[in-house]
Amino acid sequence: MTDPDRPPRLRPDDVRLASEAPLARGAVVSAVAGVLLGFCFVPQLLALALAGLSIARRERAGRRQAWLAIGIALVLTVVWAVALGALLKWWASTRG
User: Fold this and answer.
1) Per-residue pLDDT tens over the stretch 80-92
2) How many CA atoms lie within 13 A of 48 on its CB side?
3) Which has fewest Cβ within 10 Å: 31, 43, 44, 54?
4) Helix, strand and coil percent figures for the chain, each rounded to 5
5) Angle 38-40-43 (CA atoms, 0-180°, nearest 5)?
6) How far is the CA of 84 from the CAs of 28, 36, 51, 75, 80, in angstroms?
7) Is residue 55 assigned to a domain?
8) What is the pTM (predicted TM-score) of this model?
9) Burial 65-82 (b: 16+ CB within 10 A, else e)
10) pLDDT tens, 16-74?
């Protein structure tokens, strides 16, 4: 007998994960923001820094989130670096 207008209840594990790993959660948010603002490289660097701090502080609850943020940030950095390199190469060849 659940009410469809009633929001779902949070499990104790959900609250615990959110409160125990704020650095890892911030790293994931920064990495995802890098998808939209990746051309400026700041979100990727912030995600790498926060994820590194999370791992260094041994936030056990956020270990997967931290590694996910590192993966996303590194992939985005490589993609944007290749795109920027291709753009600069094209620009240099047209200046000729």
Assistant:
1) 889 999 999 999 9
2) 11
3) 43
4) 80, 0, 20
5) 60
6) 24, 16, 25, 14, 6
7) yes
8) 0.70
9) bbebbbebbeebbeebee
10) 555 678 888 888 889 888 888 867 788 898 999 999 988 888 877 888 888 999 999 99
Q: Is residue 79 part of a domain?
A: yes
Residues with Cβ within 8 Å of 59's Cβ and at least 6 positions away in sequence, in order, are 20, 21, 23, 24, 66
The Cα–Cα gap between 55 and 43 comes to 18
- pLDDT for the residue numbered 49: 92
CA distance 35 to 76: 7
Give the structural domain span for 88: 42-95
Say if residue 14's pLDDT is above 60. Answer: no
